[in-house]
User: Fold these one by one.
Assistant:
Number 1:
Amino acid sequence: MFPRIFTRQFQITSFRLAEETGTKLTKEQLRKRELRKMVQRRLQAKTPASDHPLYMPVSRALRYLRAIEVGQPASQQTITLTTLVVAERGVPPLTGNVSFGKPLKDVKVAVFTNDEAQAALMKDKYSVHLVGGSDLVSQIKAGEVSIDFDKAFATPDIVPQLASQVGRILGPRGLLPTAKKGTVAEDLEPLIKDSMSSVPFRQRGNSISLGVAKTHFTDKEVLENLLATQKAFKQSITNQQTKKPSILSQTTLTSTHGPGIVIDFA
């Protein structure tokens, strides 16, 4: 009987030899290989960011990124955060919304309602981009109003008309208000408050990338947005319905023309 350590080493060597020679692995070997890779990714996720050769504190990283963006168009100087996600197979991707203290841009909101009181509130207090009822729906259907808004909300009374008349126009753009998406309510004020600074995110592949600031933001504003992003990502993990939730791993901060710099985040 070989000692356990030699048996384990023999299995690992056999896997690697099979990969190098192109030998077809059995289902059990593939399962063990995937398990081994997952263990390695989880261990790597727990490694302190400061151990990475490209690590910098956020304040220093911002100095480098700002210097690189000097002379570039202001509209392109976006700071983006990318976080690797370690997840078991079959676990749903992380999704959610981040409410920034300092939004990257003004969000254009459209409100559909036949309630005159709600419409007046949206215009006077929140200065939303577009407000209207049945007449607005007809104008969009006829192509008389440009669909240049980023988000849309509605009161229940107008939802059937929206779905039947402009569903095929707004739906493919992700702008059709629905109760399922949380964009329909009797009282729209709480939704509007959140939407003005809220940005959606979704895991793509094994990472989440999200614009979190502009290079002209102060260090404090960038840090506040990073903390808000961290909170939203972790809340998304908490909401996962699985026995083995995802883990946030290596996180980099970059600018439109800059390199990726590893920071403390997860």
Number 2:
Amino acid sequence: MLSTATQKPHGKKKSAFRKISEWLHLWLGLFSGIVVLVVCLTGALWVFRYEVSYFTTPYQRVQVQQKSFLPPSALIAKTKTYLESRHDTLTAVSNIIYGAPGKSAYCITKLGKAKLAHIYLNPYTGQILQDKRQPSGTEKFFLFVRAGHRFLWLPQKIGSPIVGSACIIFLITIVTGLIWWFPQKWNHKTRDKSFKIKWNAKWKRLNIDLHNVLGFYSALFVVVLTITGIVFSFAWFRSGLYTTLTWKTQTVTKQRSPLSDTTITKPLIPAPEDSIWNQTIKLHPDFGRIMIELPEKAKDPYEADVFFGDGTLIYNRSICYYDRYTLQKLNGVSPEDKSYQQVSTGEKVYRMNFDLHTGQVLGLPTKILAFLACIIGASLPVTGFIIWYNRKWGKTNRRKR
């Protein structure tokens, strides 16, 4: 926040600390401004990607019926019959995903040489709704937006460090901006300038108020979005944040999931995915989304992931593994496999990182807050540059005229 709202009393010099803060705020803000503008604008668009996708792709919606969903084996059979009718070479059905009532289910299938097809079905009737083998127009748009947000449309190895570094600089400008914003003398006049926007003022005064006041009110939200975003750019920052929150060193396991007992050669239970489905909905009838991953290799287990809320939250999801032959529950091998209720407070906050960054942690209210914070964050480099330009050259232009 490049502030000029709180002027120093005449005859009183600024401290060295304040001068350094103002210098850092000005030049670091100018240096990182374009990147911050792009990252914030694309972040604002990214917030509502699920809602836009849901309403622009009708095959994601079905009419709610007063009956139970078909079991996974029935939907998988419908998918296989459909693909056979098209003479497609089905390699495997890797996943089956159920949404909440009113949403379609879909199977992720592997066809031939590394080709994927998402077959959307009505979970009540098994009717094929969509055979999706390429991203939809909405998905392509949001993939483009995400590429700008994460990498500035550059190769990942180049763009990600640039974005992460600009976000670190942005954090410094927010802190130094708050120092510059803080009035040295509190009175009625300085309070009005610090906390209120004078909408009937001339455009230069209005621009300063928009920069200072909106910057102050949004600072906390922008800081949260920025810190949670830097996590995706730098591993050292990610591990440092984890250690700060949990007082533990982050461990990375090479093994993704537990292994099935390969000494058993034949399944002991018919249609094991149906048994897993029945157990899962009995434990979590309030699910937002359930994803069952089917094993491909002999040692792979079944995996059942339950997502709550609207089905997009990932921080408190439930993950269960089952032996592919006996359906015995297996213990997870990764720290992320632990139940959200079992981990420490710091671990819970760390798991919220993605949901905090995207604003979906508490649903629509926090999405709106994240959207507004992104818009204000995008405006700060613009309004700050205008303030700097007017102070640098505005008076000279007026004298010339």
Number 3:
Amino acid sequence: MLLGQWLGFLALVLSAYILWQIRQVLLIVFAAILLATALNKLARKLQHKLKLKRPAGVLVAIGIFIAVLVGFFILIVPPFISQFQELTTTKFPQILQSATQWRTNLPSYIPAPLVPYLPDLNDLDRQVQPLVKSVAGQSLSIFSSSLAVILNLLFLVVLTIMLLAQPMAYRQAFVVLFPSFYRQRIDGILSECEVSLGKWFGGALLSTIVVGGLSTVGLLILGIPLALAQGIVAGLFNLIPNVGPTISVVLPMSIALLDEPWKAVAIFIVYFLIQQFESNLLTPYIMAQQVSLLPALTLISQVFFTTFFGFLGLLLAIPLTVVAKIWINAVLIEDILDRWKAPQSRIKRASDRDKLADSYPDPQLETEIVIRSGDGE
């Protein structure tokens, strides 16, 4: 390769390395773009219905967003921190004590001939107690990076507001990065992404509200603590297909298991019925408002983005897949592959071969003609 080609290749490798190093920042930027798109759609609706000007509509949309964010933290974070501390410092030791008593009385419930065949459980306390002490002593270890989380969240909110204030300016700055002959096409792709993300967000919001409301009602009927907070969490985790519903049921079942074991089974049944309703009735109803993705593609995208980007990648897997699908379909398939034509000389040789083959219906003679025509290159 020439020197210029080597320099271009090295620049491409260096750019890929830099992008990989800042991948978490890029995900936060994408999340800000997603929120700005949703808030921009809300601002437009407020402008239309309330006859507001653009600045007033944006301010009202931002106020709603900040109020929802603050309310979420007030309802969710303090109760869950308190409940988590109680689970690790009080409930788990009680479970260990009950398990120890049950192990001690176990031989009395088993016929004498089977007692010698019981596994040796004498080391159970020595193996489990250090683990429990470690969990109790580090009950707040998952919050050790709370400062970084708060800073990232603050960055997300500020960036969302900045993008929402002047969306067209940032959009034009992105379009200018492409060659002049392709800028109109890029602007059309961005418009398609905006429409698709808006549809996905609307359908996902409706699904979140319904699942969160049903979960809250079910937990209230069963008398589970923090019913509202856990219902909100169930609704939010419903944004993560396949994995989210499973994660959301763990905490309420754990709390119920420490209170009354039958409630854990009841919670599992309630969440299962809610998910069946959401999957078989609600989702098909709102699918017209969402972007249709193949189930296997959804699962593969979740595994891919979680592997490379962690929990934030899992949370944003669906909108990332929606955007990637639009760009691949528009740029790779429509603009490159669909317009990829074979060289005219090869097409001419193929046409001559077909004419010669039509003159010889015998397959053996047809094969000989193909070889003689010089197409076996």
Number 4:
Amino acid sequence: MFIGTADALFGPITTILRQGRTVKYIPWTAFKFALADWERVNDTCTIIAQDANSIQQYFSSEQQTTLWRGIPAIEELQTAWEAKLTTSKYILYKDTIQKGLDKLGKYYQKFDDKPVYVLALVLHPYYKLTYIKMQWGGPEEQANKYAAGNPNTVDWHDEALKVVENTMEEYSKYSSPPTAITPIPSYMDLGAPTVESDYDRHCRTLVDQASREHNAGWCAELRHYLKDIPGDVSRDTDIIEWWLVSHLDAYCNFR
């Protein structure tokens, strides 16, 4: 409304002079948005607010840690912008979106120097190493890229596993050994004449097996954790709460 009446009230917003002579008037109405202009504003809001700002909100929490969200969040933003890069609707913004992806890639590469992001992701029971294998590639992807002529290709799943193994090995030097599981005494141990049944021997075997696994160290514990597929987790699971409630005893070397 202001722009529609400003010319009559105040005259042109700008007067261009050349050699003391007026050569051009720029009216206020020159800055009035047409429908196409508003559509571009909406497109910009989608690219910046809907994509980038929504990702930023992943890290706004007063109730739980969010470090593990780092890698998935950056990749989610990359995916959203890469999709727009090849969409005709956003062809006008192609160069700008590409510059945004280049900047994003610059910071994405920094994850290689910060193993804590990989560790936090692996410690989240919803992601573990499976996410890294799917997103970054494992031995099959490495073999395919090598066959395609890339001699420097990397098995990122194996690289991430090494990060976890090296960290656990280092921290195991300072951790207390796990408390051994006390075997169930047999009838013979108690001095009773009753002979053990097949089921008694079966139970003893299970206890002995559990004791060996419990004291096998961080290697066996890590393998067990990575293979376990819990049904009570999602991408929004509070990682601290999940570990504190019932899983620190099961994975004592993760403490």
